[in-house]
Each structure stands twice: as structure tokens, then as C-alpha cells.
Amino acid sequence: MKRNSFFWCGMLCLILGFFLRLGQDCFAKSPAEKGETLEDDENPAYLEAYTEFLLDEDINQGQDFPIRGYYLLDLNFDGTPELGILHDSWGSMGGYFTYYYFDGEKISEILNESGEPARTSNYTQVLADFETEKVYLLKEMYLLRGNENGTYGYVREIRWDGQIPCVYDILDLQVELDAHVDICKLPDHEHEDEFLKDPVLEDWIRTRRYQKNKWLTISSKEYLKRKRELIPEENSFVDIRRLDFNYLGGPDLDNNGDIMDVRMNKKEIEQLFGKFAQSLE
Predict the structure, then answer these.
(1) What is the number of H-type helices and E-type strands within the chain?
(2) How confident is the model at residue 139 (pLDDT cuts 50, 70, 90)?
(3) Quick one: pLDDT at residue 207?
(4) Which of 6, 23, 61, 97 is 20 to 30 A off residue 216, Cα-Cα?
(5) Taking 80 as the threshold, does the pLDDT of residue 27 lie above it?
(6) Who's near 255: CB < 8 A, 6+ residues apart?
């Protein structure tokens, strides 16, 4: 009888211990949730490649603006982040983004249709439709004359050929005013759609559509119609550049007071990618 009592007491302790351990595992926070770096056995395959790329590569070679920040963007909804790097003038000229992806072995640049590295204005929205799994790059004009960044617009789409991403042109808009035009006498608006609807401005706004490997001139009305077919004003699109996967710093100055590239150390890189990993849980 005593032997049976000892046996059942032992079994009860084992069962209680199992559920206690299970409860601790369920409520324990992951390293990413606690703001820590990930353990080696938890690191996704892309982390090492991105870390080496960000620490060792001369990313800004040949670029004219210093690097200001880094964004993680899942452009094909597969749980592996692509990287957007912001090159910024730190002034009224604004800046632009270059984009990179993990090809399974190394980090490569995302190209446009012409095979050149894709560059987009820092005013570009990266709009993701999670229902259709499409990503559009939308840049809207906001000035008739002035800073170049405000006098052009476009719609582009990121498409994937297997594992290779490419940026495809769809629509393009340029403002071209003759030197003798008095801009003060032209109507002003707060949004690109209103500029496109204004018949007074039709002669000054050049709008085109890319089709069958060539640009075709279209009316402002057709540009607006096509843009809103792709990107409705009221929609489920999310500007994924605004999500919390970014690292902005600086400006970093050298001994002469010139602006240098903002760079991350290894711990900062792991924390940045830890945030992304946490978002997938």
C-alpha cells in the first residue's frame, strides 16, 4: 500500500512539474519582445548576410547623398525582409531610396526594367495591398514650380520573377512650364488629383503611360483614372515604409564638419531585424 502511495505521489509531482514548465514557456518573452538580440540558433538565414552587408560593404559607393537611414520592407509577403536605404541631402533637395534583397546566398540590388539599380524619391509611398499581395510605389507631385522633388510623379509596381524582384514603370508625370508663364496666375492645389483635374493646367502637365516597352502620351484625366484604378483613395493599402522597421540617425559628421553615412553596429542590426522577426509571430 505504501509502495502504491509513493508511486502515485511521484507521478503527481511529475505531472505538476510538466504543467508548471509548460506555463513558464508559454508566458516567457522572446528576445525580440524584450528588445534583445536573437540567439544564434534562432537567427534566420538572411540575418548573417544582411549583417555582413551592412557592416562591411561600401553601400554608398557612387551615390551623391549620404546615407541617413535603413528600412525593412517585406515586398513579396514571404516573411523575408527587403532593405530600403535612404540617401538624403539633409536639405531642401530631399533624397532617394535604393533597395536590396536576399537571394538565398547574398544581398543584391533590386533593379528596374532597364536593368539599372532602382531609385525612388524619398517622397515615395511604398503601398502594400495584403489582400492581392501587390506593392506599388506612388510618388505624387505637389508643386508647379520649385524643388524638383515636387514637380514630378509616378506609379510603379514591384513584381517578382521567381525569387528576383524588379521595379516596373506604369505611369509618369512631369510639370513643364514655359519660362514666360507667370506661376502666380496659375491655380494652386493641395493634392496631385486636383492638379490633374484642373483643365487650366492640362497644357503644363505631361502625363504618360508605359505600355509594351514604350511610353505613350495620355491625358491628365486618363492618368488620374488609371492611378485610381490601381490605388483607390479609400483602400486597404498600407505604406510599409511607415512601419516600425527602420533605423534613422545622425547626421554623423567628420572632423571637417561634413556629413557622413549613418552606419549601424552589429547589436543595432540584430535589434532592427529582431523587431521584424517579432512582427511575424
Answers:
(1) 5, 16
(2) very high
(3) 97
(4) 97
(5) no
(6) none
The answer to whether the CB of 67 falls within 8 A of the CB of 43 is no
Which position has the grid cell 533590386? 110
Query: What is the rounded radius of gyration, in angstroms, for the C-alpha atoms of the chain?
Result: 26
DSSP letter for each residue of 114-182: TSSBPEEETT-EEEEETTTTEEEEEE----SSSSGGGSEEEEEEEEEETTEEEEEEEEEEEE---TT--
Q: Which amino acid is at 228?
A: R
Q: What is the pLDDT of residue 191?
A: 93
pLDDT at 19: 42
> In angstroms, what CA-CA distances link 77 with 11, 115, 128?
47, 23, 9
Q: In whole angstroms, how far apart are CA 209 and each of 53, 98, 121, 124, 215? A: 36, 23, 19, 18, 6
Lowest mean pLDDT among 60-64, 114-118, 188-192, 230-234: 60-64
Q: Half-sphere exposure (CA, 13 Å, Cβ side) for 222?
A: 12
User: The pTM is what?
Assistant: 0.81
Three-state SS for 63? coil
SS3 letters across 83-94:
EEEEEECCCCCC
* 146 Rama class: left (phi>0) / alpha (psi -120 to 50) / beta: left
Dihedral sign (CA 58, 262, 50, 109): negative
Instruction: Report how far residue 198's alpha carbon sits from residue 221's, in angstroms, rounded to the nearest whole number.
Output: 9
What local confidence, expressed as pLDDT, does residue 245 receive?
82
CB 261 within 8 A of CB 206: no
